Structures are given as structure tokens and as C-alpha cells.
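ok, trying the design again with the full structure, not the truncated one.
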């Protein structure tokens, strides 16, 4: 599987952050999922293709992890998800925790890049819903009517 989003993770490397750059080469494969080990030609840093992703450190197949996250998004419990997919409850719990941590990291980085660290998430969701012309927005399992929020 091609992964054009990989880049050298070494901050001191001149190719750091350059996605899809020709500086990366595959020097090996490991694990049941046949995960590629990459090497930066510029600085020699070696790393997994799953580095800085939700999948890094999890031994389950990417498809299984995606199915677990879909179940989570649908509001299914750990027990129901485990039974439906055919994996242990501990594995589902580990994937949930990893997904939660990964989302927090991505959101924190995005908030920093957009210089919105001190902006309440509820306000951001409200503004996004308003921008998208939605009539209702869900904030922490509560559905709000946009017109009522505007009148407050």
C-alpha cells in the first residue's frame, strides 16, 4: 500500500515534514501486517510507516481498527463491539484508548497551528455548524437548535 503521507520524523533533518518526498526508502518489513520499515536517505533515521498514526503500536489489522472506531462512533459498547468484530474486549478497549489519545494529539496540534488554544470547543462546533448552514448541532451528546443559540 502506498503511503505518500510519510515523512522523516527527525526534526534536525533537512527533509523533515516533507511528505511524499523521494528521500524515504523501504529497508525492511515486520509483523503479521507486513508493516514497512522506512529509512530517510538524507539523515539515516529509521522508522515504521505507522509512526505518528493511530495504528502505531497496535498489532491488529488496520481494517479491524477502523471497524472498531466505526462502532465507537456509532455509540456501541466495548462488549458489543468485541462480539460483533470477534476480538477481545481488552483489544477493543486498547484501540479506544489509542484512538482517544490520537484524536487529542491531532486536535491539540491543529488548535496550536490555528492559534485557537484558548478557544472553547463548544464555540468552534457552533461556528462550524452555523457556517455549514446546519439547523442543529450536537455538543457533548446534547443537540442544540442553532436559531435558539443565536437569540441568547
Amino acid at each position: 500500500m502506498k503511503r505518500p503521507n510519510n515523512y522523516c520524523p527527525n526534526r534536525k533533518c533537512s527533509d523533515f515534514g516533507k511528505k511524499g518526498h523521494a528521500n524515504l526508502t523501504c529497508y525492511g518489513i515486520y509483523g503479521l501486517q507486513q508493516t514497512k520499515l522506512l529509512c530517510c536517505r538524507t539523515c539515516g533515521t529509521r522508522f515504521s510507516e505507522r509512526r505518528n498514526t493511530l495504528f502505531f503500536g497496535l498489532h491488529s489489522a488496520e481494517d479491524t481498527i477502523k471497524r472498531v472506531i466505526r462502532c465507537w462512533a456509532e455509540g456501541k459498547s466495548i462488549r458489543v463491539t468485541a462480539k460483533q468484530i470477534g476480538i477481545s474486549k481488552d483489544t477493543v478497549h486498547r484501540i479506544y484508548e489509542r484512538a482517544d489519545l490520537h484524536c487529542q494529539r491531532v486536535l491539540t496540534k491543529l488548535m496550536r497551528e490555528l492559534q485557537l488554544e484558548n478557544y472553547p470547543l463548544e464555540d468552534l462546533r457552533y461556528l462550524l455548524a452555523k457556517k455549514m448552514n446546519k439547523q442543529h448541532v450536537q455538543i457533548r451528546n446534547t443537540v442544540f437548535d442553532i436559531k435558539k443559540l443565536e437569540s441568547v
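Keeping the full-length input from now on. Residues 139-152 have pLDDT under 50 and may be disordered.
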